[in-house]
Design goal:
Blueprint: E1 2-9, E2 12-20, H1 40-52, E3 59-60, H2 61-73, H3 79-107, H4 110-128, E4 156-158, E5 161-163
Antiparallel strand pairs: 1-2, 1-3, 4-5
Helix pairs in contact: 3-4
Length: 164
Amino acid sequence: MFIVRTAWSVGHRRTDVFRMRVGLVFPEHRDPDEHLLRIPLLSLFYRILSLLLQQHRRITIMDAIIESGRKIWEGEIDFEGQRLVEMFCSVLLSTAGVLAFMVGFATQDITYTLYILLGGAALTFVVCVPPWPIYNKDPVKWLPAKKSSRVTGIDITVDGKKVQ
């Protein structure tokens, strides 16, 4: 796990210290990360990363990677988009199956059938899995939340006793 730490001492900021914890112990080095900076690619990665990350808060590199991946692949689509994706998926897979069967039957070669099915599945994946903007044209307009001082009409019973 990568951790970016900003070290503070006697009122002034020292340089950022990068640590990589992989669960390995390197007793021959005073600093377990010293050997990593000898690898040119990792050293370059650390330098680029230090320019990109903010210096005043603690951020893990994995959190940054997960956050960017979440924004890309989170899949926020509305209900109409879900209906459209389901239709695309059904049509594309059915068309690929029928086409693969006809080509395989005409050529009497199962490899053509399998390649066409694989291509159809790949095309369906590309069309249906990413959250394309076309799938979010009609976002749901939610009602505003209501604050209530007292919840009424709910009876919760735990071990024969009513809980409020």
